[in-house]
Amino acid sequence: MLSKYIIQGGREINGVIRIGGAKNSVLPIFAATILSGRKSIIHDCPILKDVEIMIDILKVLGCSVKREGHTVIIDTSGYIEYEVPDILVRKMRSSIVLLGALISRVKKAKICFPGGCDIGPRPIDLHLKGLEQLGVKINESHGTIYCEASDLKGADIHLDYPSVGATENILLASVFAKGTTTIRNAAKEPEIGDLQNFLNIIGAKVSGAGTNNIRVEGVKSLNDGEHTIIPDRIVAGTYMAAAASTGGNLELQNINVEHMQPIIAKLKEMGCDIYFKDGSMHITSPKRLRAVDIVRTLPYPGFPTDMQAPIVALLSKAKGTSIMIETVFENRFKHVEDLICMGANIKVDGRIAIIRGRSRLTGANVTARDLRGGAALVLAGLSAEGTTVLDAVEHIDRGYEDIHLHLQQLGADIVRI
Ligand code: EPZ
Question: Are residues 383 and 413 in contact, defined by beta-carbon separation less than 8 angstroms?
Fold first, then answer.
């Protein structure tokens, strides 16, 4: 049964919210706990569908996992299976990051191709090319990938594209590799830095995360570790956009300002005032936002593709015309058709969307088609006139913990049925 949100628009989003740990950091770090064969205690793990699926996979592989609120205790000292169940891989394609972890721990892995998802074909060619350079033997047949690695040797790997997942998989597969591994043109997202920090806490030797080149010195074994996940910059950006879409004022706690810079710059350009005081970030928004000439999504530290849909929702009501260019994923404008139902004036041509801001959007019956597109429709509903009924909100549960409850506390009229 698909749940819905019913949103009465026109209420300002005001108040204080604490931002939780980053989904896209928890997932690779949970995979990394497999390497140590010891106990890891991870704090600030958000309660999200994708995180619970990763916990299910760890349990099926033989790990013992206990959740105590937002802390998750993972013991990987037992026998670890090398085969990842298809049904769980298909539920969450980012489980592909287990490949590198299993290769390091049990020297083999079996996983089905994760396949495409709502936003594009999501190939893994860069993952496999990098793993082969580390000495992994890879066979693919009938949609399944079989990996064997009797002895992993450090390599000098250049990524054709700074892929987040490929960087993470190669990093995890190189921790025990003999000698030095260099990953060039590596992804620089903050979640890579968090993974590096966790790996070093348990005894790995990784440096350079956040720069173009990551270096790994192979080690023999790892230890217990305890780590707190970095705040989720996309969840923070989404709540900032919720305030901005309703002319509200919001205080956000537990923020890493550095990670927020591309999002802060764009919201300031649209007319918001953003400042940092006593460890919190504050955003005050104008009654009506300004359009921006061009927004181009890029690998970090460029403007994040995960904020593209929320920003398109804001620009739909801004004063003037904006152009959004989605350079990262092939098919990430699924939310546009629903925004048009709400009165937006948007033309999409491939990776380009031309958004002519309207003074008002009106509530309508719309459907979430992917995680961030669904969040964008919530933002549009908050600022639209009248009632918005948003279907298939399970998509949103994948990346936002109880978003409707938090928005209610911040003044929104939103219920989940
Ligand atoms: C991660 O996905 C995130 N997911 C995504 O967040 C995020 O949008 C993306 O990075 C970009 O920042 C997680 O961290 C779990 P990529 P990932 O590999 O690793 C192409 C969300 O909403 N590519 O950097 O899959 C690929 O097709 C999700 O939280 C290849 O061609 O992203 C895409 O066009 C959505 N070959 C581009 O690179 C490869 O081998 C970026 O993909 C790998 C990727």
Answer: no
Quickly state the pLDDT bin for 116 (edges 50, 70, 90).
Answer: low
Average pLDDT, the chain: 97
103 CA from centroid of ligand 1 (Å): 21
The answer to whether 117 is a known catalytic residue is yes
- pLDDT of 134-168, one tens digit each? 999 999 999 999 999 999 999 999 999 999 999 99
**What is the rounded distance in angstroms from the CA atom of residue 103 to the CA atom of residue 136?**
8
Please compute, for residue 234, the number of CA atoms within 13 A of its CA located in the half-sphere on the CB side. Answer: 26
Which phi-psi region, left, alpha or beta, contains residue 62 (left: φ > 0; alpha: ψ -120 to 50)?
left
Task: Evaluate whether 119 touches 331 at the Cβ level (below 8 Å).
Answer: yes
Distance of alpha carbon 116 from alpha carbon 123, whole angstroms: 7
Cα separation, 408 vs 397, whole angstroms? 16
Q: Atom 28, ligand 1: which residue's CA is nearest?
A: 306
Most confident of 91-95, 226-230, 329-333: 226-230
The confidence score (pLDDT) of residue 1 equals 65
For the segment(s) 4-20+231-416, the CATH number from 3.40.50.2000, 3.30.870.10, 3.30.1370.60, 3.65.10.10 is 3.65.10.10
Q: Which residues pair with 286 in a beta bridge?
A: none
d(CA 189, ligand 1 centre) in Å: 11
Q: List phi, psi (to 5°) of 324.
A: -110, 125
Pick the CATH number of 23-228 from 3.40.190.10, 3.65.10.10, 1.20.1260.100, 2.60.40.1510: 3.65.10.10
- Give the nearest ligand 1 atom to 122 CA: 27
In the structure, what pLDDT confidence band is assigned to residue 119 with cuts at 50, 70 and 90?
confident
303 DSSP 8-state letter: B
Give the model's confidence band at 221: pLDDT under 50 very low, under 70 low, under 90 confident, else very high.
very high
**Sign of the CA dihedral with 337 first, then 339, 344, and 347 last:** negative
